[in-house]
Design brief:
The protein is of the alpha/beta class and 66 residues long. It has one domain. The protein has four helices and three strands. A three-stranded parallel β-sheet has the order 2-1-3, sandwiched between helices. It is globular.
Length: 66
């Protein structure tokens, strides 16, 4: 089973590149044109695409709980 990730702008590009080199399916919010969107929009978009949202945003846990 392969993970399909949706990575937001809070994750350093070196992490994204490392995941890709290891064969993971990674789509960044920059690639998708959503890099300036609010976290709620990113979560919805990741869900629409069937991807796991990967973020290092400090307030994301509060947003996900809401």
């Amino acid at each position: 089973m392969s993970l399909a990730l949706y990575v937001d702008v809070h994750v350093p590009i070196v992490v994204t590149e490392s995941l890709r080199r290891r064969g993971l399916d990674v789509l960044t919010s920059q690639d998708d044109g959503t890099d300036t969107q609010d976290d709620e929009v990113l979560l919805t978009r990741a869900t629409e695409l069937g991807r796991i949202l990967f973020t290092q945003d400090q307030d994301f846990l509060r947003i996900a709980a809401d």
